[in-house]
Design a protein that fits this description.
The structure holds 2 protein chains of 2 kinds. Chain A is α/β, with parallel strands linked by helices. Chain A contains 11 helices and 15 strands. In chain A, helix 9 links the parallel strand 10 and strand 11. Chain B has a single domain, classed as Pyruvate-ferredoxin oxidoreductase, PFOR, domain III (Pyruvate-ferredoxin Oxidoreductase, domain 3), CATH 3.40.920. In chain B, strands 2-3-1-4-5-6 form a 6-stranded mixed beta sheet. The radius of gyration of chain B is 15 Å and the shape is globular. In chain B, 53% of the residues are buried. At the A-B interface, strand 8 and helix 9 of A face helix 1 and strand 2 of B.
C-alpha cells in the first residue's frame, strides 16, 4: 500500500505487522507518536499485543525483559532522557540475550532543555551489546524496524536491536511510505533459553570470575555473527520487497576523491552537497553510515575524509570520526554539526568540504 | 523542486495543511515532504511548516530559506513575522484574507477568504473555523496539484464532507 506517513507512524506501522506479544512503553517527545499509534492499534483491535503503560522507561525495558524471557516478541520506543533512564535495563536486555526491538528517536540531552535531533543519546548506549542502525527516510524507518525483529530473533544473534531516527527532522516529517504484506518475512520467535516452567532454572544468577568473561565473550561472538545475519536479512528484504540496504548508503563514491561520512538525515542532505561540489569540479561522494553496532568494515581507500558528527564525546571528539580513525587508521576533518537540532543545510555541508582541514576538528557555528 | 513555506498560528491546523499538501502532490504522482518546524509551540503562537514537491525523491531536510510560495493562513501574522523573508523574486504569496492586506502590496499575491468560507458552511471545530482543508482547494487552483488530487487527499484524511466542499469553494473563489 502506498501512502504518506511520518517517521514515527512508519515505525508503528512496521510494529503492527511484526505483531509483538508485548509492548511496554512510556511517552517522551519526540517519540510519543509511536507508542500513541501502537496504543490506537491495540484499542481498535487491529493489533493484539498486550500494551503495558508503565510509569517510567526503566520499567518499560524491565517489562520487555520479563516478557521476552518467556520467549515472546517485544517492542518499546524511547528517546533521549528516556533511554538514559532505562540504561541499566538496556544493558541487562543484551546481557540476558533477549531479542527486544526498540525504536529510539534521537534527541539532545539536557540541560539546556532541548527536544531536537542529536545522536549522543543512543551513542552513549553503544557499548551495551545492542545492535544499532540509523535511518534517514520514512521508508527506511519502516523497513529497518521490520528487519530488526528478524535480525534480533535469529538464533545466531539473540541480541536486542535499536532503530534510531532523528527527532523531528525525521520523526515528525511526512514522506511517502510503501507498506507491504510481510507474509513469513519475520519467522515465529523460538527463544532457546526461554523460561520453561516445567523445568525451573535460575536466570541472572551470581556468576563467578571464572565464568563471567565467557558469557561476555559470547555476546561479542554473536555480535560478530550478526554481520552475516544482517547481510542475509537485507538481501532477503530486497528480494521480497525490492528495497535494498547495506552497511552504508553510498552516493557518488566510486570515483570520489573526498568522502563525506555522516549518520541519519544529514547523510541525505550531504548527497545534495555532493551534487553542488561536483558542479564546482570537486569530486566528492557521500557515505551514510547506517550500522554503528556491529561497526562495518568501511571501504574508504585513500580518499580524503570529512566526517560530520551530530554527537560528541567530551574530552575526545566526534564519535563517528573516532570510530573511523580507530577502525581504519585514517585521519579526517571532523565537523561537529547539527547538535540539538542546529540547522545544517546542504550549502553548509558543501562549505565543510571546501574548507576541510584534515587532522582537525571544528564545531559548526563556532569555528567552522 | 518547488518549495513552500506555510505560516499559521498554533492550533490553526497548519501541520495538517502541510500533510494534506504533501498527500495531494503524492496523489499527483510527485514526491513530497512536509516538515513542520517545531519550536516551543503553544496555541496561538506563530508557527511555520515547510513543504517540498519534486519529480524525484527529496533529500533535503533543512528549512526552506528561499520559498517559491508563501502561504499565510492567518493575516494577523503579517504584523509579527516577515513572511516574505527570502521569497524568490518571482515567488507567489497566498493569503487567507477578503482583500490584499496593505503589508502584502508589491508582492505577487493571491487571496481568498478561507475564514469566511469555513464560517459560511459551519466548518468549525471547538469554536475555530477550519482553514487547513479549504486552503488545499485554493492551492489546487494555483496549480500546485490537481483539483482531483486535492479532493482525494482531503477525503482520505477527513470523512466530514464539509471539508472538501470548503476546498471546492476556495478553488472557485480564489483571486
Amino acid at each position: 500500500m502506498l501512502t504518506i506517513s511520518t517517521g514515527n507512524n512508519a515505525v508503528a506501522a512496521a510494529v503492527k505487522q511484526a505483531n509483538p506479544a508485548v509492548v511496554a512503553a512510556y511517552p517522551i517527545t519526540p517519540q510519543t507518536e509511536i507508542v500513541e499509534q501502537i496504543a490506537n492499534f491495540v484499542t481498535n483491535g487491529s493489533l493484539k499485543s498486550k500494551y503495558i503503560p508503565v510509569e517510567s522507561e526503566h520499567s518499560a525495558m524491565a517489562a520487555c525483559i520479563g516478557a521476552s524471557i518467556t520467549g515472546v516478541r517485544t517492542f518499546t520506543a524511547t528517546s533521549s532522557h528516556g533511554l538514559l533512564y532505562m540504561h541499566e535495563m538496556v544493558n541487562w536486555a543484551a546481557g540476558a540475550r533477549l531479542p527486544i526491538v526498540m525504536a529510539n528517536v534521537n534527541r539532545a540531552l539536557g540541560p539546556g532543555w532541548n527536544v531536537w535531533a542529536e545522536h549522543t543519546d543512543s551513542l552513549q548506549a553503544r557499548d551495551t551489546g545492542w545492535l544499532q542502525v540509523y535511518v534517514a527516510t520514512v521508508q527506511e524507518a519502516y523497513d529497518a524496524t521490520l528487519m530488526a525483529f528478524r535480525i534480533a530473533e535469529d538464533r545466531r544473534v539473540y541480541l536486542p536491536v535499536m532503530i534510531n531516527l532523528d527527532g523531528f527532522s525525521l520523526s515528525h516529517i511526512t514522506q511517502q511510505l510503501e507498506e507491504n504484506e510481510i507474509g513469513d518475512f519475520i519467522p515465529p520467535l523460538v527463544l532457546d533459553h526461554a523460561i520453561d516452567t516445567k523445568n525451573p532454572a535460575g536466570y541472572g544468577c551470581m556468576t563467578s570470575s571464572s565464568d563471567y568473561f565467557r558469557i561476555r565473550y559470547d555476546i561479542e561472538r554473536s555480535m560478530r555473527d550478526s554481520v552475516g545475519v544482517i547481510r542475509e536479512t537485507e538481501e532477503a528484504f530486497s528480494k521480497s520487497f525490492g528495497r535494498s540496504y547495506s552497511w552504508t548508503e553510498d552516493y557518488q563514491t566510486e570515483d570520489a576523491e573526498i568522502l563525506i561520512l555522516s549518520m541519519g538525515t544529514l547523510g541525505k542532505e550531504a548527497e545534495v552537497a555532493v551534487d553542488i561540489l561536483r558542479e564546482e569540479g570537486i569530486k566528492a561522494g557521500a557515505m551514510r553510515v547506517r550500522w554503528i553496532r556491529p561497526f562495518p568494515n568501511l571501504n574508504l581507500g585513500d580518499r580524503e575524509l570529512v566526517v560530520i558528527d551530530r554527537n560528541y564525546s567530551f574530552g575526545f571528539g566526534g564519535i563517528l570520526a573516532a570510530s573511523v580513525r580507530a577502525k581504519t587508521g585514517r585521519e579526517c576533518y571532523n565537523v561537529i554539526a547539527g547538535i540539538g537540532g542546529q540547522e545544517v543545510t546542504y550549502m553548509d555541508i558543501a562549505g565543510f568540504v571546501r574548507n576541510r582541514r584534515i587532522g582537525e576538528e571544528s564545531w559548526f557555528g563556532v569555528d567552522a | 523542486m518547488y518549495e513552500i513555506r506555510l505560516h499559521s498560528r498554533g492550533g490553526q491546523g497548519g501541520v495538517t495543511a502541510a500533510k494534506l499538501m504533501a498527500l495531494a502532490a503524492f496523489r499527483d504522482g510527485k514526491y513530497a515532504t512536509a516538515a513542520p518546524f517545531y519550536g516551543a509551540e503553544r496555541r496561538g503562537a506563530p508557527i511555520v511548516s515547510f513543504i517540498r514537491i519534486d519529480d524525484k525523491p527529496i533529500k533535503i531536510y533543512s528549512q526552506i530559506h528561499n520559498p517559491d510560495l508563501v502561504v499565510v493562513l492567518d493575516p494577523s501574522i503579517l504584523d509579527l513575522v516577515n513572511v516574505f523573508d527570502g521569497l524568490k523574486p518571482d515567488g507567489k504569496v497566498l493569503i487567507n484574507a477578503p482583500e490584499v492586506p496593505e503589508k502584502a502590496s508589491g508582492y505577487n499575491v493571491y487571496y481568498v477568504d478561507l475564514t469566511g468560507i469555513a464560517l459560511k458552511i459551519n466548518l468549525i471545530v471547538a469554536g475555530n473555523p477550519i482553514l487547513n482543508t479549504p486552503v488545499i482547494g485554493a492551492l489546487a487552483k494555483m496549480g500546485l496539484f490537481s483539483r482531483e488530487s486535492a479532493i482525494d487527499a482531503i477525503k482520505e484524511m477527513f470523512s466530514d464532507e464539509r471539508n472538501h466542499k470548503a476546498a471546492l469553494m476556495a478553488y472557485e473563489e480564489l483571486i
